[in-house]
Amino acid sequence: MHSVQPEHIDIKVESESALAWVQTHWGQATRLKLTWLTRDIPWVMAHNAASVTSLKRLELRLLQERSPTTAMLLTWLLAQAPQLQLLFLQHPTALVLPPIRHLSHLIVATSKFTDTCAASIRQLRNLQTLWLGMEGPEPIMSAVDLDLRSLPQLSDVCVDRLTLSGITLPRQCRMHWVGDGESMFLDIWSDNARQGQLHSINLQSDGSLLPEQFLDFLPLYFVESKCSVLQWRDMPQFGRPANPALFDAAHFCCLTHLKLMSRDINILLPQELPLQVLHVHARSLSIVFENPKEQAKRLQQLKVAYRTLRGADVFVLTGLMCGMGALISREAVAGADQYHGFLVNSGHMRGDAWKCPCGACLGCLQQVEGY
After folding, report:
1. Sign of CA pseudo-dihedral 179, 180, 185, 189
2. Which of 250, 249, 198, 233 is nearest to 357 (CA)?
3. Is 232 exposed, middle or buried (0-12, 13-18, 19+ CB in 10 A)?
4. C-alpha to C-alpha distance for 41 and 110, rounded to whole angstroms
5. Which of 186, 177, 262 lies closest to 228, judged by CA?
6. CA–CA separation, 359 and 84 (whole Å)
7. φ/ψ of residue 192, rounded to 5
8. 120 alpha carbon, distance to own chain's centre
9. Cα separation of 353 and 289, whole Å?
10. What does residue 168 show for φ and ψ, rounded to 5 degrees?
11. Contacts of 315 (CB under 8 A, 6+ apart)
């Protein structure tokens, strides 16, 4: 074991000896994952630590360890990794990133996002994707104005429950937003929406409306977003049977993927809406398709779960899709025995078409680029 030089290392740091062993054996590692489980184990660099010149992917999950010494030694370690392409940091302390030349993907889950961290990110000239946020239950409020126009290769930025004072992206970069209704402020995201950069929204309602209240219309930030992917969960009762909520094609001209989950849903989908994937989960459900035949030609996947269904439009659309070669199958609804569910896939579609759209989280990078 003293001479082994593993290519992949994944270890939970439970003692100083474990950390010392890793430092003397990570010289040939291309992938390194360290997880702190207790706060009593400081990061101390071994005097005979190997150089990490082969390292391409580094994950540090500091679940308990919050020592400033860790941040200092982390900066030193990153400066020794010239081939590093992907960096995942959970709960870093006083993060300062050296200008790592080849770093393409950065994921930071932090409890405090500072101007110093923002300045470090702006030095990563070859950065392609950036994920910023918090994995805990509460959103983070930050006064940082994040200007990323100096990163010409940046393609996707995902902000997960992190409220910034402002964010500016390169023209070609796509914006992805995750959070609740209280943190969806138009003065922050409106510029990105107007420029067509707000690609996806993943919203979980905050529960501020009572269960018996209805939401008759789409919130203004949805209407102005021009997003392509919209997921809205745990909303109050949405629309009424006699007055369904309208997804106006003029405002949702780019919407290709739509997922709604609520107790009661009543919606109207115009024929001009460019939907390709539609997932709806509701106790009481009503969907009106303005022109089912035209929408069946465009829709690649329809996934529906309901206890009570009003109107026959869903079945009309399903029949038209099956007539065009789509396949229908029964869909189990977890934890809801009284619900009915089915999945309709177009002839060339296989499996679940709904995937994370952000392109910046660890799951997306593992699927697309094999990290």
Report:
1. positive
2. 198
3. buried
4. 20
5. 177
6. 19
7. -65, -40
8. 22
9. 21
10. -125, 130
11. none
Place of tokens 């789509």: 326
Averages of pLDDT over each 10 residues, the chain, 371 residues: 83 86 91 82 79 92 71 82 92 77 91 85 94 73 85 95 86 89 59 79 64 57 80 83 88 92 92 94 93 93 93 94 91 77 81 83 82 64
Query: With contact defined as beta carbons under 8 Å apart, do 345 and 300 qualify?
Result: yes
Structure tokens at 262: 């609520």
Residue 358 tokens read as: 């952000």
Residue 193 backbone dihedrals phi, psi, to 5 degrees: -65, -45
* CA–CA separation, 300 and 16 (whole Å): 54
Asked whether 259 and 237 are in contact (CB, 8 A), the reply is no
Residue 308: its pLDDT value, please?
A: 92
Q: Using alpha carbons only, give the angle 260, 262, 267 rounded to the nearest 5 degrees.
A: 60
Q: Token pair of 283, please? A: 């106790």
Q: How many CA atoms lie within 13 A of 57 on its CB side?
A: 12
SS3 of 123-173: CCCCCCEEEEECCCCCCEECCCEEECCCCCCCCEEEEECEECCEEECCCCC
Q: What is the per-residue pLDDT for 139?
A: 61
For position 213, what pLDDT does the model report?
47
